[in-house]
Write a structure and sequence with these properties.
Strand order of the largest sheet: 1-2
Shape: globular
Order of helices and strands: HHHHHHEEHHHHHHHHHHHHHH
Distance between the termini: 77 Å
Number of helices: 20
Largest sheet: 2 strands, antiparallel
Strand content: under 5%
Number of strands: 2
Helix content: over 70%
Structural class: mainly alpha
Radius of gyration: 22 Å
């Protein structure tokens, strides 16, 4: 009886997962990306350079969590084994053309990420310890007046990012170390739990500081390997680019045909960069923005989508396509295909490098995923006791994931994430006018040559702003003087 029940549950989860990621989410997220791109006047292209400038400026030390730390934390969650294994699967299923559609969806997703992160900053709150918190649950409650909607989103995110994804990330780490070095999975799991506990028990600030250290190292190391493969095969690059375009548009036979390439590439891009999911918006709200305007964090997260997909996913694609592993059947897919490609190009030592990369990618994802979930736990309840219990449960799931096979958990997490995205897209479409006006205010100040500063008194139509956070310093001083007199 129990086995039949589990089979039915697994069948239902797989069906829902296929429906969400196979059709519904693709159309919804693409439509949202097109809408926001048009309404913002292709801002991801017009002001791309300005976004890069803000990421660099965000490294300045401030009292709180800097924009650069938030950028690194969101990248820690975005960049994982999916940027390696997922790209390999996309190419296997859809052919080289999948890469073209992956690029396209990322460019559209940059606008969606801009909108949701700007809204997260607008409706953020300050907790009892002076830490900024926000995200979709908060703008659903404060912007739409729908706490029930925020509650649903929070529960879905906690299931996906707090528990399931962290279990799978731990499982990937232990597999990598066990396969490369023969290490015992239980011992590895205990080490991962202790390292995770040290960081997540320090709260969002410690997570942000750890991400600031780990993410640049893992990104530079992986990009350096990809660049090495690119340089040693530079003569093949024009042909590879031509194949990507021809396969995408159906001018040349692809593994899955033009439609297969489109679906595989779009799905991979959406899943990788998380634009529209509402996940990165949770940490975006935690930034002490520089300059002091909500739209600045929109620019930062827009660049995050670009780096995740256009830079890192493309690096994986380059390694696979230039190595020659696609020229003949080899029975490999996913991370195995990437490993074979690296072995062909760089030799057996690349197995150790890939294990190292997986460790950094997965561990950084664990702590970043936790930070997303923590903000949503605090949305549901302000109880420190509940937060303490939640941290214990997260660490327990990390340990379980280290030693167990979790395919059903992974599929359930995908369903939670898909439903989470649908709820978030509905909210940001309903709040899009607020985002447009805030972003327009930023652009007007930028064009006039001043550092954009957000003055909440200029936006009487925006309700439920946290008192004092978004009134500029001059305005606050004027108010205080008036009250004194």
């Amino acid at each position: 009886m129990f086995e039949k029940l589990m089979m039915w549950i697994e069948s239902a989860i797989n069906y829902t997962n296929g429906l969400l990621w196979g059709s519904v989410l693709i159309y919804v997220l693409v439509a949202a990306g097109v809408l926001f791109t048009l309404r913002l006047g292709f801002i991801q292209f017009r002001l791309f350079g300005h976004g890069v400038k803000l990421v660099i400026q965000g490294r300045e030390k401030i009292d709180g969590i800097s924009s650069f730390q938030v950028f690194c934390t969101s990248m820690a969650a975005r960049v994982g084994t999916g940027n390696m294994a997922g790209v390999a699967v996309a190419i296997t299923v859809g052919g080289a053309g999948a890469i073209f559609w992956m690029w396209l969806i990322a460019m559209l997703g940059m606008a969606t990420a801009f909108i949701e992160s700007t809204l997260a900053q607008v409706y953020k709150v300050k907790d009892s310890e002076g830490q900024y918190r926000g995200g979709p649950a908060y703008y659903m409650e404060r912007g739409l007046g729908k706490r029930w909607m925020g509650t649903i989103f929070s529960i879905l995110l906690i299931i996906a990012f707090g528990f399931a994804f962290n279990s799978v990330q731990a499982n990937t780490m232990t597999d990598a170390l066990n396969n490369a070095f023969g290490f015992d999975k239980t011992i590895i799991g205990l080490v991962i739990v202790l390292a995770s506990a040290y960081i997540i028990c320090g709260g969002l600030k410690k997570v942000a500081k750890a991400s600031e250290l780990i993410v640049p190292v893992m990104a530079v190391a992986y990009l350096a390997i990809a660049l090495l493969v690119l340089v040693t095969n530079i003569e093949q690059v024009p042909a590879a680019l031509s194949l990507i375009v021809k396969s995408a548009l159906g001018w040349e036979e692809a593994a899955g045909g033009a439609m297969g390439a489109m679906m595989a590439g779009i799905a991979r891009g959406l899943f990788s960069n998380e634009a529209g999911m509402g996940s990165a918006a949770n940490i975006a709200a935690s930034a002490t923005p520089n300059p002091n305007h909500p739209a600045s964090q929109g620019f930062v997260q827009m660049i995050g989508v670009f780096v995740d997909t256009i830079v890192i996913c493309s690096s994986s694609a380059a390694i696979i396509m230039l190595s020659g592993v696609l020229d003949a059947p080899n029975g490999q897919e996913g991370i195995g295909l990437l490993q074979l490609a690296l072995n062909n190009e760089l030799g057996a030592w690349s197995s150790y490098f890939l294990a190292f990369a997986i460790i950094l990618f997965c561990f950084s994802s664990i702590i970043a995923n936790y930070s997303y979930a923590e903000s949503n736990v605090m949305f549901l309840t302000k109880s420190k006791k509940v937060l303490f219990i939640f941290r214990g449960l997260v660490l327990a799931m990390v340990m379980v994931g280290s030693v167990a096979s979790l395919s059903l958990v992974w599929n359930f997490a995908d369903v939670s994430m898909g439903l989470m995205a649908l709820v978030n897209i509905a909210a940001i479409v309903m709040l899009s006018k607020v985002a447009y006006s805030v972003i327009k205010d930023y652009e007007l100040q930028l064009k006039s040559g001043v550092t954009p500063t957000f003055d909440s008194t200029k936006f009487p139509e925006i309700d439920n702003l946290e008192g004092g956070i978004w009134v500029n310093k001059n305005q606050k001083t004027a108010k205080s003087s008036a009250e004194t007199n």
